[in-house]
Specification:
The chain is of the alpha/beta class. It has a single domain, classed as Mannitol-specific EII, Chain A, CATH 3.40.930. The protein is about 40% helix and about 25% strand. A hairpin with a 2-residue loop joins β2 and β3. α1 runs antiparallel to α2. The longest helix has 14 residues. It is globular.
Length: about 140
């Protein structure tokens, strides 16, 4: 299962990109998805420094590929007030973690799926308006039903 209720925060208090990334990494670590949270955090920040992971449409997809990840996952956060992500205001944040050995297939499949779906207004609107974690899982990964 890529996403679980433990990996979802539908009303983040964080107002800073770094604080939010730290918060989502903690959720992943608390859900036993990571071998080393510091190493994963470093991989996410390294990727973020290369190029912004804000994809437009008020969406950001920070991600890391490292052996600090036990199994692929998606964390999801919603910020009602929004967070500035390299000068773009984002409300929907997907943190993706993938083990280094799965970086080809799993990583590309997960990222491509999210990237394809965020251009759909209805997909984003459903995520923006729901306050039900089970519904979020259905929206993000309908194969989990």
């Amino acid at each position: 299962m890529l996403i679980s209720e433990k990996l979802i925060d539908l009303d983040v208090a964080e107002r800073d990109k770094g604080d939010l990334i730290n918060h989502l990494v903690k959720l992943a670590n608390d859900d036993d998805r990571l071998n080393d949270s510091e190493k994963f955090l470093k991989a996410v920040y390294t990727r973020e420094a290369e190029i912004s992971t804000s994809l437009g449409y008020q969406v950001a997809v920070p991600h890391g590929k490292t052996n600090a990840v036990k199994k692929p996952f998606i964390c999801f956060a919603k910020s009602h007030k929004g967070i500035y992500w390299n000068k773009q205001l984002v409300h929907l944040i997907f943190l993706i973690g993938v083990p280094e050995e799965e970086k080809g297939n799993s990583y590309l499949t997960i990222l491509a799926s999210i990237a394809r779906r965020i251009i759909d207004d209805q997909f984003r609107q459903h995520l923006l308006t729901t306050d039900d974690k089970k519904k979020v899982i259905e929206i993000i990964d309908p194969t989990e039903n």
